[in-house]
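Action item from last week, closing it out:
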Amino acid sequence: MTRNKRLLVMAGGTGGHVFPGLAVAKYLQQQGWEIRWLGTADRMEAELVPKHGIEIDFIKVKGLEVKVCLS
């Protein structure tokens, strides 16, 4: 029994993350891979990814507070 290769893409928020992820996902999809996407419901991937025929699941994401100390 042969199983298909699967990929979970986790990218979202901005085009700098979503468009490269879509390019890789579409290429691998054409090679027979099963693709799923993990993103957020309130960012660009929510509309864009399904338009490319890729199933998407949503998670809630909260930003991290980063403090930089240059001493």
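Closing note: Strands lie at 6-10, 34-39, 55-58.
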